[in-house]
Design goal:
Structural class: alpha+beta
Largest sheet: 8 strands, mixed
CATH topology: Aminopeptidase
Number of helices: 5
Shape: globular
CATH class: Alpha Beta
Number of domains: 1
CATH architecture: 3-Layer(aba) Sandwich
Strand order of the largest sheet: 1-2-3-4-5-6-8-7
CATH superfamily: Gcn5-related N-acetyltransferase (GNAT)
Order of helices and strands: EEHHHEEEHEHEE
Helix content: 25-40%
Number of strands: 8
Radius of gyration: 15 Å
């Protein structure tokens, strides 16, 4: 897979993050509530952070270790968040991560995007298991994971770890 894939759902298009996304990336990522829950999103979030992020996305895809998609609404094609799979050392597992701009919370967007990327991971990347973590107080992310069939593996401090194994 040398061309970055595009995934479609009923309402969403998941695509490669582009330079043109920088203003929206900064607008939505520059939020303390998001940085508190996403380890690699600093606050405040500024244009140099977004430019570095795009480079990080490109390098990860070239090395086949990260598939980080822009979440966009089909009708607008505006960047509203990210969803990603970070591939494990054995190429059979991945860590799922996601965030969306606060004004889009509570609309089922993250659930829909997660379903698409989980299918992509199992069907196109031939993964055996996908993991995810969220803070114990982040009930919205927990709901996204549970709604996509993930099961709680364990709780370590204030972090819940989830897993989903490929159906055979």
């Amino acid at each position: 897979m040398n061309i970055f894939p595009i995934l479609h759902t009923n309402r969403l298009k998941l695509r490669k993050i582009q330079i043109e996304d920088i203003p929206s990336l900064v607008k939505y990522a520059n939020n303390k509530k998001i940085s508190d829950n996403i380890i690699n999103i600093p606050y405040p979030y500024q244009e140099p952070d977004a430019a570095f992020r795009i480079s990080y996305v490109v390098q990860g895809f070239k090395k086949k270790v990260r598939y980080i998609f822009a979440i966009t609404l089909k009708e607008r094609n505006e960047f509203i968040g990210e969803i990603s799979l970070h591939i494990g050392n054995n190429n059979k597992t991945a860590e799922l991560g996601f965030w969306i701009g606060e004004i889009f919370w509570g609309k089922g967007i993250a659930t829909e995007a997660a379903g698409a990327i989980i299918n992509f991971g199992f069907e196109k990347l031939n993964l055996d298991k996908i993991h995810a973590t969220c803070h114990i107080e982040n009930k919205a992310s927990e709901k996204v994971l549970l709604n996509n069939g993930m099961k709680k593996d364990n709780i370590n401090g204030n972090v819940i770890r989830f897993g989903l194994t490929k159906k055979t």
